[in-house]
């Protein structure tokens, strides 16, 4: 089986260490732990690996966050990957920093990257791994929070949380969505 694992983020050095690039950062950590190297390809940076009998295509779109759906649709089609084998990793201000929630479908929750993916694949019925970045910011400061850098405390905690996200990726591909949600969403 083949899987498309997408980490959402924005390209460019000014966004590299921001909370909104959590999807990129999770895939970078996963790739580093697996000794993978991303190569620039059409619509994004791609790395490939196998986990037992699963073939994973890791994608960091270079279309900017709000147009991520173009890259997702292209790679699903190009690799002939069914929609049920898509996992999108995304930052989420609605859950506390570092908490991880796997869902099989759902709304975009105001996230423009998810909105664009939904528009391009014509459904919200795809798996997403929500990585909490917290919502502790003054009223009217959401953009500054999301596009801001992680605190020292968050930066120190990130590798351990990214490692668990990697376990979720592997479990999603090997055990399936339901078993993975049961195992990891309670942590």
Explain briefly what this protein structure is.
Helices cover 37% and strands 22% of the residues.
Q: Would you spell out the secondary-structure blueprint of this structure?
A:
Blueprint: E1 2-7, H1 22-33, E2 39-41, E3 44-51, E4 54-61, H2 68-79, E5 86-92, E6 100-103, H3 112-121, E7 127-132, H4 142-146, H5 152-174, H6 177-184
Parallel strand pairs: 1-4, 1-5, 5-7
Antiparallel strand pairs: 2-3, 3-4, 6-7
The number of E-state strands comes to 7
How large is the share of residues in beta strands? 15-25%
- The outline comes out as globular
Strand order of the largest sheet: 2-3-4-1-5-7-6
Oligomer: single chain
How would you characterize the largest beta sheet?
7 strands, mixed
Keywords:
Rossmann fold, 6 helices, single chain, 187 residues
Task: Report on the architecture of this protein.
This protein has 187 residues and is α/β, with parallel strands linked by helices. The chain has a single domain, classed as Peptidyl-tRNA hydrolase (Rossmann fold), CATH 3.40.50. The protein contains six helices and seven strands. It has helices at residues 22-33, 68-79, 112-121, 142-146, 152-174, 177-184; strands at 2-7, 39-41, 44-51, 54-61, 86-92, 100-103, 127-132. It has a seven-stranded mixed sheet, with helices on both faces. Helix 1 packs across helix 5, helix 2 packs across helix 3 (112-121) and helix 5 (152-174) runs antiparallel to helix 6. The longest helix has 23 residues, at 152-174. The radius of gyration is 15 Å and the shape is globular. The two termini are 27 Å apart.
């Amino acid at each position: 089986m083949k899987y498309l694992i997408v980490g959402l983020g924005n390209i460019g050095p000014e966004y590299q260490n921001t909370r909104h690039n959590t999807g990129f950062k999770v895939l970078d950590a996963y790739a580093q732990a697996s000794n993978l190297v991303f190569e620039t390809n059409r619509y994004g940076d791609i790395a490939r690996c196998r986990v037992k009998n699963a073939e994973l295509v890791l994608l960091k779109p270079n279309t900017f966050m709000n147009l991520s759906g173009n890259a997702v649709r292209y790679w699903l089609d190009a690799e002939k990957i069914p929609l049920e084998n898509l996992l999108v990793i995304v930052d989420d201000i609605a859950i506390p920093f570092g908490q991880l929630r796997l869902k099989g479908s759902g709304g975009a929750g105001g996230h423009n990257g998810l909105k664009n993916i939904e528009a391009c694949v014509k459904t919200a019925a795809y798996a997403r791994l929500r990585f909490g970045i917290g919502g502790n910011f003054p009223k009217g400061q959401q953009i500054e929070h999301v596009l801001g850098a992680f605190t020292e405390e968050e930066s120190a905690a990130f590798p351990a949380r990214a490692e668990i996200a990697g376990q979720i990726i592997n479990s999603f591909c090997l055990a399936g969505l339901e078993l993975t949600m049961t195992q990891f969403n309670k942590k």
